[in-house]
Amino acid sequence: MAEKQSQFSLVPKIVNGGIAGIIGVTCVFPLDLVKTRLQNQQIGPNGEKMYSNMVDAFKKTYRAEGFLGMYRGSAVNILLITPEKAIKLAANDFFRYNLQTKEKTLPIFRQMVAGGLAGLCQIVITTPMELLKIQMQDAGRVAAQALLVGKTVKKTSATQLALGLLKQHGILGLYKGTGATMLRDVTFSVIYFPLFATLNSLGPRKNDGSGEAVFWCSFLSGCTAGSFAALAVNPMDVIKTRLQALTKAEGERSYSGVGNAFVNILKYEGPTAFFKGGACRMIVIAPLFGIAQTVYFLGVAEYLLGYQRG
Q1: Given Cys at both, which of 59, 66, 173, 232 links 165, Cβ 3.0 to 4.6 Å?
Q2: In whole angstroms, what separates CA 84 from the centre of its chain?
């Protein structure tokens, strides 16, 4: 009976993940774009750089590309965020359910395993989504750098880029940076899900007898756990972003893999380079996961689809 209930509730869990992802991405995408540009910029031989900080990057991008420019690459993200968030949240629930002890408890280590497996499942969608999104987000920075040396960069769309990669490299062309994506997302989920569950369990419960946390508790728990996990994995995110940037600005280094990227970033830019865009990423991830967990725990899909909360 418990198994049937688990399968029955899977559909609304997936829909909740999708709704949460779309709302969250729409709210924070401009900051995510700024984060990508900060992480991808490399310091010149004389210490020159296009953006000095998050605010400077935001101002320059808005001034040069306008409001719509701040959402460059959002279409592919919104399209793929539904399956990505759905897989992540539903997989975590699935693994938490199946990793319970005979006493129906879930020790912290098993919570971490469940989170890590959920993160592993999502990279099927996350890797191509991030690859295409990063090219779109970083296009304005690369074009501006090219203009400074009298060159131009041909504009392209996410569709053209995806078709070009498929034609040249097959389906594997869309999975460049899979290792770095796996490192980031598995580690993030290992930290995030147990931390969220712990924080969420500390808050007050609803008065309807469901035993679930109140609205603000789920939201704040998601924000806190998300921002902490985001900062912890920022070095892996910098490496992933650099590896997935297919078009480099004039004079920028390319990397052959995770190890090569780590060594060269450390050598030429120092340890602080691994935390480029860290504050930006925390600001992006906190509301993204706060919104996600709130939609998930409020059961928006259950209400819309007429399902009973399980």
Answers
A1: 173
A2: 9
